[in-house]
Amino acid sequence: MAKQLGFYFDASACMGCKTCQVACKDKNDLPVGVNFRRVWQYGNGSWVPSGKLWTPNNVFVYSVSVACNHCEKPSCAEVCPTGALAKRADGLVLVNADQCVGCRYCEWACPYGAPQFNEAKGVMTKCNGCEDLLAQGQNPACVDACPMRALEFGDIAELRAKHGNVNAIEPLPVATLTFPALVIKPHRHAQASGKGMGRIIDLVEEA
Predict the structure, then answer these.
(1) What span, in angstroms and rounded, lies between the C-alpha atoms of 22 and 145?
(2) What is the pLDDT of residues 123-164, one digit of tens each?
(3) How far apart are CA 21 and CA 86, in angstroms?
(4) Which end of the chain is more exposed for a tag (fewer CB within 10 A), N or C?
């Protein structure tokens, strides 16, 4: 079986601080509006009157950190008309800026919103797993930045052996769309993808 690199995310440990998102943005010098890694808060519930008090009614919230999942069946690469997006031998899905014409088909096709258009460059950009750091034997910037050690990166087979096979919780799409190279430890309130009762509750999309 070919090697496939991927991420592990521990939703039970993530506190939604977004340090991973900031580290990614800084490492890649991303412009306003482009975020290779994003952190969403997903929740639901209400408060209901009970006598003189208000009591919680199925209130929950948890955070999900998501970037490119370097899918085993990447829809971004499938729709690219120029072949600019392709899987490398180690499973990373990379974009060749010299071949990209900026049509944005990949942006529309990816259910995770991973490919993002860089207005200044006129091409698509995305998480490359910090390939320069990997070449030096280091972790992606988001992994080392996490104060809760909620992220890991490595061979997906080893991550699955260590952490299990869950690869989809709300608000992520069902995994059968693209087979993401992702392993998740669900939060205790996590809901299955496609069956959630909550919503993304972030008030403002960060720069």
Answers:
(1) 9
(2) 999 999 999 999 999 999 999 999 999 999 999 999 999 999
(3) 24
(4) N
Separation of alpha carbons 106 and 194, rounded Å: 22
**Partners of 48 in the β-ladder:** 55
Measure the CA–CA gap between 146 and 24, rounded to whole angstroms.
Answer: 11
| Cis before 31? omega within 30 | no
Distance CA 24, CA 32 (A): 13
pLDDT tens digits for range 34-58? 999 999 999 999 999 999 999 999 9
CA distance 31 to 205: 14
Are 71 and 93 a contacting pair, CB within 8 Å?
yes
How far does the chain reach from its first CA to its final CA, in angstroms? 40
- Sequence-distant (6+) residues with CB within 8 A of 164 are 183, 185
Whether the full predicted model's pTM is greater than 0.85, yes or no, is: yes
> How do strand 5-10 and strand 199-200 relate by DSSP bridges?
unpaired
**Each residue of 89-111: pLDDT tens digit?**
999 999 999 999 999 999 999 99
C-alpha to C-alpha distance for 180 and 17, rounded to whole angstroms: 24
Q: Which of 122, 147, 130 is nearest to 67 (CA)?
A: 130
Question: Is it the case that residue 204 has pLDDT exceeding 90?
Answer: no
